Amino acid sequence: MGSKENFGLVKQLAEVCGGVVGATRPATEDEWIPRSHQVGQSGKIVAPKLYIACGISGATQHVSGIMGSNYIVAINKDEDAPIFEVADVGIVGNVMDIIPIMIEEIKKIKS
C-alpha cells in the first residue's frame, strides 16, 4: 500500500464490506495496524467468506494464513504476482485506483 495514509483505504474498504482488516508483517512492523491483525505463518490464520488481498504479493508466509478463505480477490499491479495463483478473481491494477471504485460501488449496492 506504500504508506500508512494509503493503508487507510483498506480500512475504508473493510468498513463498507462489514469486515476486518488483516495485514502482512511489513504493515504491522511499520505500525500501520496493530500486530494482532497480522495474518500468516507468524500471525493469525483466517477463514472469511471473502478475503480481498490489496497489494499483497503472495508470499508463502502470508498465503498460508488465508487459504481457509471461501473466496479470494487479489488486486496487484504486478500481473505475475504469486497471489494470483491462489486467487479466485484477480484484478491487475493499482490498488490506489481500484479500491476507491470498489468502495463507491459497494456503497451503491448497499443503498
Automatic annotation (TrEMBL):
Q: Which residues form the Electron transfer flavoprotein alpha subunit C-terminal domain?
A: 1-66
A single GO molecular-function term is: flavin adenine dinucleotide binding
What organism does the record attribute this protein to? Fusobacterium vincentii ATCC 49256
Gene3D superfamilies, alphabetized: TPP-binding domain
Listed InterPro entries: DHS-like_NAD/FAD-binding_dom (IPR029035), ETF_a/FixB (IPR001308), ETF_asu_C (IPR014731)
Q: Pfam families attached here?
A: ETF_alpha
For this UniProt entry, which segments traverse the membrane? none
Could you tell me the Gene Ontology terms of the biological process aspect for this record? Answer: fatty acid beta-oxidation using acyl-CoA dehydrogenase
Name of the protein: Electron transfer flavoprotein alpha-subunit
